[in-house]
Batch of 2 targets.
Target 1
Amino acid sequence: MLVDPGAGAVGRSAPRLDAESKIRGTAQYVSDLEFPGMLVAGVLRATVPHARLGPVDVSAALEHPGVVAVLSQDDVADVDAYYGHVYRDRPILADGVVRFAGEPIVAVAAIDATSAAEALATIDVEYEPLPVAGNVEAALAPGAPLLHAGPRRRGDGETEAALTDNVCSEYRYRDGDVETIFDSAPVVVEGTYRFPSVYQYAMEPHISIAHWTDDGVTVWSSCQHPFLVRAELAAMFGLPLGRVRMRVPFVGGGFGSKSYTRLEPLAVALSRKTGRPVRVANDIEGAMLTSRRHNMSCYMRTAADTEGRLLARQTRILMDTGAYADNGPRVTHATGLAAPGPYRWSALDVEALCVYTNRPPAGSYRGFGNAHMTWIGESQVDEIARRTGLDPLTIRTRNLVGVGEHLYPRMTPVTTDLAADMEAIARELDLGSPTPPHEGKGIAIGLGRGGAEPISTALVSVDPEGYVKVMAGSTEIGQGVRTVHSQIAAEVLGVPLGCVTSVETDTEYTPFDRSTGASRSTTVAGLAVQRAAEDALAQLRECAARLLDIEPHRIDVHDGAFWDGGRAIGHGEVVRRQAGAAGGGAGDIIGRGSVTASEFATSPVFWEVGAAGVHLSVDPDTGRVTLLKMVTVADVGRAINPALVERQDEGCAAQAIGNSLFEELEFTEDGVLANASLLNYRVPTAEDVPEHSTCIIIENGDGPGPFGAKGCGEGVFGGLPGAIVNALADAGVQLTELPATPERVWRAMRPHVEGA
Amino acid sequence: VLTNVQVHRPTSVAHATALREELGDDSAFLAGGTELLLLMKLGLADLDHLINLKYIPELRALRLAADGSLVIGGGVTHQELAESPLVRQHAPEFARTEAALANLRVRISGTIGGNLAFADAHSDPATFLTAAGATVTCSGAAGTDRDVTVEDLTLGLYETVLEPDELVTAVTVPPSALIGGVSHQRFESQHHRPMVTVTALVQRDDTGRISAVRLAAGSLCRRPLRLRESEAMLLGAGAEAIESGDLDAAVAVAQRDVESADDAEGSAEYKTHLLGVLLRRSVLEAFHRAQKTDA
């Protein structure tokens, strides 16, 4: 039974409105779309990591009977063929220099995929090899090859001076006298840590279809930020915004991999050349080469007093952003920001460098920054607890930032009781009770910036039959946003959820939403939906009052009608009779709601809490880690749909477990991806989530979103890796490098085992 | 992938092998397709003809022969072996091994004959059947059948003694492998593939001592290997020696003889260490199961 019969009250685990169509296979994704005359693209990718491009011979490809066009760098010389929302440094096709193995060099548009593949195989490319910076160390070494020369264009149109090294961006934060504290502190822990590069696997790899006509271009794309992509395409191809139309049907997962611009420019360039719709689709290897998570290395030291009070922390962070900036600067910023963790400090010194290398570009992935950093700080907090004789819960409650306190002076204060979150986890995990040998328990907590830039507009219309349509620019990416937005509208308008639909994003018709990411769709876009529904309700109420001939404030609204005691008039009837028309028909009543950045005095919109606990066992003979129990806290202010909150935590947990225990993109010395296939890159599945998993939903109503909600779904990436690393330490395995593969765990245990 | 491939559907082994001989190098036998279709998809195999073996009744046999051996047709799938009451009764550990193999999609299409003929080093059945002393019947276009032990079937990575026109029509597990205690151990890599596999078959005499033992290791090396020297060292061992874990010498010779190499899944050192762990576990478990069998 997937049809929800009841009212659309917020706080109820209503079934997802898209569940049935997805289960039946009728839900449409970009890949399902067919257009008359549509061509299929093939992309020739570079086989070397750094080289000057010699002659590229496409003559044989052009002669292939199935090929309609071959697109080379020359074909986009008349447009501004670079994209990148932070730095506009990425060419549609390699611009005379190849900067990573896998970079697109030439594309063909053919009548089918086989023709495209056959044509690509005939293309000869000559490379003149350049020195390679295959990793961050090589990229920062004296005399390292410079990846990007010349003045830098920012995504906002400004220009910066040319780089003299490969540091794409820096984050620095200094507060207090760190050196003096470290010189005198009784307890200091330090270490060097590594976090792997991983792949943000989505069931649907990137795909875009573009159709260029005299009126502009329409792009159907599996993307998270259609409005930002629209702006980039308009700037690149010299079109007015209104001539670029982005349509986003259901998206088969993104997790950050589909944020910002991906395949769209190539699809547009190919359609522009052929005048026909062109489909560009990644396979798994292509997806891995399009975006990945930054690998990171980090030095950290933390000082505390003998009572376990945290005093100072210092970190040096290196992020490998690959050949192009992509979202690297912001990921690096978020990583630096996460370094202190949610604690009070006397002094901090954080430096994070985002470094260009000849690896495939890295960008966003669920919980970025928090995922990279929190486990490191949290493992040092546990080490300090051990040295000062405290338990993991006490050292945290002693140091956590309290309600109303600031993590950073000029940023948004913390609104929730973090200590209570940790206590809830400790209770559920029975933390402190003895565990058998080779078992361990661990907890961890981090905070991530949520909400991104809070700019959203929504429309909510009520039609003459009382049906409600929500139009918002959020992408339904599997998170259930259309269900949640429908619930919000149903709640406000007092109609059953079954009367509400949320439509797909189409920049031609759905109003602006900045992006789908940073856990913002419920909080920010949802707030716009709430306001739009309230606007529609106010209009309806006024009409209803007139029709019922009573004061508007005396009207009750529920069950799809406006009530004056026992007398009722349905929403549809109000719409039909709004202008006093008697049978002449009537248009919808349309409510409008907006959220603007100026409403928020400080950033972030909210702090997303990531708190988790784990109970695990380690096989001392093999190093295999088995998760026995997992506890997460979803501190969401208000759960619009509790089941969806739980599913978000579970999904994030599966990915966090993968990142922590086995996922890793491997690269050669020269930065060439070595495991570009699902045969040798394992994606986590439901099997990897422990059978005993508890998601504790905390509802304090402290969020800025609708009904006091704040976002969720990324926080687990902060807490869970730390909980795993701390539980491993509790079991006797000290790790400073993830993922915790059996061999790595076995090696970490060996001296311990031999010494015992 | 298969747009330009002609698929043939012979209904007898004779027809299939004749086709293979006739079509030559542009053709291949298609059993479950779990490996071959993947290779074609990756562009590593370019074939014009596939000879589908799914419609050959002879390959579907699954029976206990008059001499007490278990005869498995080459086309029997892993899932069929896992679920077969006959296999569960006479070779329960083999049924369990097959049930745990890869994932359901692979088990439902992959066949025992295809698995052995493909000779991927990462194979649970190959290790198990090597320890069991099983033989395969290979049939070629000339109409001649020959029997080869599973141990001798594989020469190296993806390399067997099979002629191009030969296919594995049956696997025979001898009666001696269907009594006593059996234990198959596997360690999965982070890629969900068997990284080290060990099988032990143990029989005990009326004093409880080991009267017969067969061991094999695989997946960490180029082909499954019988561990004969280790076997010899365990003969006559009693409960005291086995339970106190006094297997060091037998483990050491196994670790000496099985060659492994560093690869993306792990170092040779780690895999060799795991060989020791799994060998101890399999011998111990098989030993206890043998006791139960006797009781």
Note: Chain B touches chain A at residues 3-4, 38, 42, 187, 190-192, 264, 266-267, 270, 273-274, 277 (CB under 8 Å).
Target 2
Amino acid sequence: MSDLPLLTVAVVGHTNTGKTSLLRTLLRDVTFGEVSDRPATTRDVSGTVLLVDGQPLIELYDTPGLEDSISLLESLESMRNQQREDAIDIVNRFLTSTDAREHFHQEAKALRQLLQSDVALYVIDARDRPLPKHRDELAILAMCARPIVPVLNFIARPEAKTAEWREQLSRLNLHAVAEFDTVVVDEHSEQRLFEKMRTLLDRFRPTLDALIDDRRKQREQLIASSARLIADLLVDAAAITLTVPADDEARMREATDQLRDVIRTREQECVRELLELHRFHPDDCEPDELPLENGQWGLDLFSPEAMKQFSIRAGSAAAAGAMAGLAIDVAVGGMSLGAATATGAAIGAAISAGHSHGRRLLNRLRGRSELRCDNATIHLLAARQIDLVRALLGRGHAAQDRVHLDHAASARRSQSSKTRRSLALPEPLNAARSKPTWSTLAPVEGGSLRGAMGLTHAGREAAVNELATLLEQSLRQPRTEPAVLSAR
Amino acid sequence: MSQAGSAAELSFDDRLIAECVRVIERDGREKLDEPSADEAGRANGDDFENRIITRARALTIAGELDGAIRQLRAGITWIIVIGLLIAFLLGAATARTTMAAADDTRVNFYWVLGGVLGVQSILLVIWLIAAAIWRVKLHSKARGSADSAMHISLGRLIVVIGQWLGAKLQSASAGRAVVYAAGGVFTTGRIGFWTFSSITHAIWLLLNVGALVLILLLLSAKQYTFVWETTILSERHYITMTEWLSEPAQLAGFAVPTDEDITQSQWRGHAVEPMLPDGASQRWASLLVASIVLYGFGPRVLLLGLSLSMRRRACRAYRLDTALPGYERLRATLMPQSQVIGVVDPDDGIGHDSQSPGIPIPEHLDARPPGLPAIIGLEINPPETGWPPTIDRIMWNDLGIIESRDDRARAVELLRSSDNEPNPLVIVCDLCTTPDRGIGHGLQALAEAVHQSPLLVLSAGQQLRNRGYDADGVARRIADWRDLAKRVGLDAENVIELDLDHLTAAAAARLAHHVKGDSDKSNAPTPVRKIESAFALIHEHAGRWLDRSSTPSEADQLAVHRAIAELYRHECGSFRSLMSLKPHSPRELLSEIQAGATRFVDLLPNRLRRSPKWLAAGALAGAFGCVASSALISPIAIAALPSWSAIGAAIAAAIQPAGKDQEAAAAPDPPDVADAVRASSLFAVTLELQSRDETTITRVLEQTFADDDVELTRASAIHNWLNACRHRFDVALEARA
């Protein structure tokens, strides 16, 4: 491990094509450098080193953009002496000239760094048309006698001219072209970028292999952890049960509000944790990037519209609006003796089915209602988190705008698939339904035997794990798939 | 190598501490982030688990946790000891009860054996089955479900009681966390299974010991006669059974009853006194002791040994599950993927504000006579409306679109050598191009070739917006271009933003005005403000729909859009050019509807485009606005209006970015009153703004319509909302001025 050679990479390109963005995304660091859509945002050369298990593997240098390549190439060409001279010698001579310190100081910094590096990543804004100035830039970079890997940025945009660029680059004998959108990343784009570098840098093959391997592992872990976080939220939401007197309208409303608040807060906490896990910091660096309260994401969990957007068939309670998302076990208030006898057999059967059912029946007989989240809400919670995680997995750390979740698209998709989704819950959540103590949201009497058993209950952990396995499958699917919590 | 070395040094307790910290951070809903601990973790330099543990150990709470773990251990040990003691006593009691036979000396051998070994043998079999199930499940897919195999066991009971007591006794949150964390570790997975098993077997072992001790005591101190009795079984059965029991005992060196002993030991009632051979009682007693040792004590000793060693192995193999969110979140801090090297070649401050010497307007001695206006595109895409832009009464000297060094040189040469001075020189640039020094150089070279400052037209604003730039972004980009123009010495008032891709009547007039230098701006009369009337119309129509309490039909919506279009009848032409509609009544109404919807969506600012509500409103306004304005030119029968499903599909196709989603565009739900109100007010505001350029339209739209969640389901709410929009509209217009 320790004898892996250290690879030095210079990130170069025309101004404002996303060199710093590329670094942000590769580093998973939303704070690296300064990113804007203006020219010459980066004016110095700064470096970072990629570590694997604490060992430095790749040094990446961000350079100022090349702006005036047409003039620079002209002046380099004019510097060519009579006798045959290697291009790199001309570059070296140029770097000591006054032009390099004055008019072309920005370009000189990039070239100087490139000469000290093993490879250049030439970042291209694929939304732009390939122009002669880009050819000139490549000609200048080629004079530095270093391998060049063109990186097509912004290829996820509809106006990207990927094919045109590839054609142009192959005419310049650049065939190992990487497509890497710094804003919209997918599972393989980063790996392919490193693989492209590997084809040109045989000496650094083990280094790049180690990095690719590490990145893959990290992604797996990220998915697994995200699934655990979501599963935890869902178990909490499925298990929570509030008990209120059946005929007390005011208390009932109060408890309903309480339940909603608790679940809303819990969801936001989950969102925060997911963001932290994926290294997007909603409050640290970009304060208004992810408003959890307003904008798209802030669509209230309990509005019937929210359900509609994920095309979850809202139950009758939800359709009523006021009660959206909450189910109430109808209480059997003052039961007559006859009715009690009639239900006697049922009670007997239910009590034998388990302790918790017995307790619930007891509550009914006492004239109490139990308030719980209904299945539609659980599905909605799941769908929203799945959608969020998929969005985060495909989000580059250079992304400047908010995570925005395309509800309209998901609604269309489920409309076209014409499948009426069942509201059945997966088995682990069904299990949680009857175990109020599994919910960390429930007010647990400290130190009670139930509490101790509930929280350390192997069952909860097992349910969370099992559910997480189910969720992992959903998380791995592309965003175009409907975000569904499938029952199996 | 070093990794393996230090990994082995980590003890089980180290991991337990880390687990406790995780539980505290999870349940306490707050993180114990201490920079010094993070630093210590990072400095560890080993694998991730090692760093987590180092961090946990470096936290201030670690000492408290250590104490709590010790306390919990002690507590559970005590409970186990008490449990074992009780088991011993219970064993003795069982033995005593079974040995207390009818008349104190005559004891039924099989009754005693069954009493002492019966239940535990059955439970042993159950344990074996459970263990088998557990093994199978452990290797099956569903993680964790294996734990259900040990739901019921004596060991579990003891541990749960221990935890409960622990939680009762621990008042501090650290102590509680330890109980839960230890609970998680000790009661799940391999460790859990073997812990429960160890305790279970230990208890049964002690029970056997208790029974054995008491039986030996009784056998030493009392005279027993061992008999057996039966009502239905034959003598043969008992002989066989006893031989089965005896064989292992005999092998182990115990004396066992002979066949004669067995036959004679049958109890046939008080009338028949058994004639026992000499030493038969001793042999029976020996078999009894041997049975308990071999069938009760023995298996438990073996299983206890196995369980303890397996538990030790499991503890040694125990690793933190670093994929748990509580650990994974630490990865960035403890195991950074990157490390900043910092600036290696600092900005030397050159060129930040470098004012280029300005254009040295060449001192041509012979001033050339003014000629045609010349037009050059600098690194642009040919505009959608064609190159050069066709504008009434203007004849261009087209110098083409220049890109390369050679193009540039040729254009400069043409400008220089021309007999006439271009009047003026118009340079068209693309707003999507970043205004950098290279472009500046090009502008400068061109400007130097002519006498006066050229007119710089910034085109393709719509494309820039389509790249996701909001109003601020576009404004910033334009400002950057103005900066560049200033740096290379162009006049600031000679920079205009004008989208040649959508050359509307208003834009063309503006360009003509700049090119010709007309001073009168009155060729397009300022339109009279009609927004109030338009909003009143919307309010009226919406009121009617609400009274009917039904969703507005397509005819209803067309009616309101038509009424609004009627207000702006005189500016119809400019509106149709803004919407890029064909000048005359369309035959293909549906494709026209789709084009209108697409164009309107294009005009929407990004923020509104992201909102499904507003996206739909934009498409609706475009679709119906297009039909309404066509109806102004040549009245089309409302009956000819396609049904909602057709319009809806056209709208959906407009909303959906081309080629992005191959699925058939399904018609969205028919719009309700709120949708219709939003669409028609969007239409009205756009018509009001039609004489402005697109950037302004988009900006005012952005500021006028908030993505608020007002329920537009009552007439009064609609009224208030329209008023609020009108107010914001005025503010937005003022801001421009």
Note: Chain A has 19 helices and nine strands.
